[in-house]
Design a protein that fits this description.
It catalyses: GTP + H2O = GDP + phosphate + H(+). The structure is a single chain. By secondary structure, this protein is of the alpha/beta class. The protein has three domains: 83 residues, Four Helix Bundle (Hemerythrin (Met), subunit A), CATH 1.20.120; 198 residues, Rossmann fold, CATH 3.40.50; 130 residues, Signal recognition particle, SRP54 subunit, M-domain (434 Repressor (Amino-terminal Domain)), CATH 1.10.260. The chain has 20 helices and eight strands. Strands 3-2-4-1-5-6-7-8 form an eight-stranded mixed β-sheet, sandwiched between helices. Helix 7 links the parallel strand 2 and strand 3. The longest helix has 25 residues. The termini are far apart. The chain binds guanosine-5'-diphosphate. The site of guanosine-5'-diphosphate has 18 residues, from helix 6.
């Protein structure tokens, strides 16, 4: 997807290279080319207009006249505007204060809802959640069975009406599904609902009834990125009907032009939370507008590559640290090493949220400020190797020196050291209990 658009934009930028300064005429010609490229990619007209006016305004402003390399400036503006129409910052799922959280999937038949239910369930389980899928699509033949098969493959439990119990009432199934989750302590319920080939009143009414019966924390509109302009019309109908809080794009692996992907967030004002990129259960991930923009601009998905490299690197490091933790030998150096690795991977709250068993600490995690971690890093860096290896030697004068060296206060140094000792104690206890994801060593 997006190859054609990427090629056209690349050609546009090529004509700008080598120019020392951009004239009004250059800008106009460039915008005309970008407009054509977007329309060809099937992007909705209002979105194209919005996009171009954003680029035009910024291209004409002072920032361009100062440019050393106008082509790069234009690419950077187009990049930022692309990110904006794709929804800006990635948004995370909202969870209920009192579990279970309810996620309702809505969309047309064939959009990929049932597949998404299983993929999302698997994704959530990997994050340490205990989701259950509810088969409330009783319209499409085999939808229940399909969800059961996919759920089994994804190793996520499925709540479905008893086979042979007749057609059943989807609203009732959804309600009982949420009850089931509450009784069995599943923290998230993903409800698959019926879709039709086109938007129709019955379907919309049913989705609204399920919504009212289950009070979802998130209603996610599932849309097939291959359907082009129609996606925008459908999205509007769903927004006016059942309403939704976010979007899941499917079939981003298709070879279509991708206009839907580029239009839906902007037209509905709702962010794209996830993208599905293939038939396999793992072809599913959080949608990152900035990565999508760099892919379209042909910069490749550099961030994903970096993340993958880091994931491999972390595994070894974590293993070493885990061994020291279980032996009660964690040092401040380990602490720093872990923190630096984690810090490179993005906002700390996202990372912690992904650790197994962290679901219950969601609220606390949401309040973590990354800048605090930077201060902690500065404090540890101001210590000598002896101090890091054996923080017990940190007396008053050492602490005062460290505070000066790191631009912090003695109180902050004290609090870090205290927290470190507590963490070490706690980790040792946890290790003894064998928490998931942490290997037990044989050393007693
Ligand atoms: P539903 O009617 O909305 O529940 O749609 P389904 O989940 O049954 O999906 C319809 C078809 O699209 C199935 O054949 C899926 O295998 C396929 N599908 C779903 N998601 C993707 C995707 O991301 N990429 C590709 N290539 N196919 C997909």
């Amino acid at each position: 997807m997006f190859e054609a658009l990427a090629d056209r934009l690349e050609a546009v930028f090529k004509t700008l290279r080598g120019k020392g300064r951009l004239s009004e005429a250059d800008i106009d010609a460039t915008l005309r080319e970008i407009r054509l490229a977007l329309l060809e990619a099937d992007v909705a007209l209002p979105v194209v207009r919005d996009f171009l006016s954003g680029v035009r305004e910024r291209a004409r402003s002072a920032e361009l006249s100062r440019a050393l390399n106008p082509a790069q400036q234009v690419i950077s503006i187009v990049n930022e505007e692309l990110i904006r129409i794709l929804g800006g910052q990635a948004r995370r799922l909202r969870f209920a204060k009192n579990p279970p959280s309810v996620i309702l999937l809505a969309g047309l038949q064939g959009s990929g809802k049932t597949t998404v239910a299983a993929k999302l369930g698997r994704w959530l389980a990997k994050q340490g959640h205990t989701p259950v899928l509810v088969a409330a699509d009783l319209q499409r033949p085999n939808a229940v069975e399909q969800l059961q098969v996919l759920g089994a493959r994804a190793e996520v439990p499925v709540f479905a009406p008893e086979p042979g119990s007749g057609v059943g009432d989807p609203v009732d199934v959804a309600r009982r599904g949420v009850e089931f989750a509450r009784r069995r302590l599943h923290d998230i319920v993903v409800i698959d609902t019926a879709g039709r080939l086109g938007v129709d009143e019955d379907m919309m009414r049913q989705a609204m009834e399920i919504r009212d019966a289950t009070e979802p924390d998130e209603i996610l509109f599932v849309v097939d990125a291959m359907v082009g302009q129609d996606a925008v019309t459908t999205a509007r109908a769903f927004l006016d009907g059942v309403g939704f809080d976010g979007v899941i794009l499917t079939k981003l692996d298709g070879d279509a032009r991708g206009g839907a992907a580029l239009s839906v967030a902007s037209v509905t004002g709702k962010q794209i939370l996830f993208a599905s990129t293939g038939e396999k259960l793992d072809d599913f991930d959080v949608f990152h507008p900035e990565r999508m923009a760099s892919r379209i601009l042909g910069m490749g998905d550099v961030l994903t590559l970096i993340e993958q490299a880091q994931a491999a690197f972390d595994a070894e490091q974590a293993e070493r640290a885990a061994q020291r933790i279980t032996a009660g030998e964690l040092t401040l150096d380990d602490f720093l090493e872990q923190m630096t690795a984690v810090r490179k991977m993005g906002p700390i709250a996202n990372i912690l949220g992904m650790l197994p068993g962290m679901g219950q600490f969601k609220d606390a995690i949401a309040h973590i400020d990354d800048r605090d971690l930077d201060r902690v890093t500065a404090i540890i860096r101001s210590m000598t190797p002896e101090e890091r290896a054996d923080p017990k030697i940190l007396n008053g004068s050492r602490r005062a020196r460290i505070a000066r060296g790191s631009g912090t206060t003695v109180a902050e140094v004290n609090s870090l050291v205290e927290r470190f000792f507590e963490a070490r104690k706690m980790m040792k206890q946890f290790a003894g209990m064998g928490i998931p994801g942490m290997r037990r060593t044989t050393k007693a």
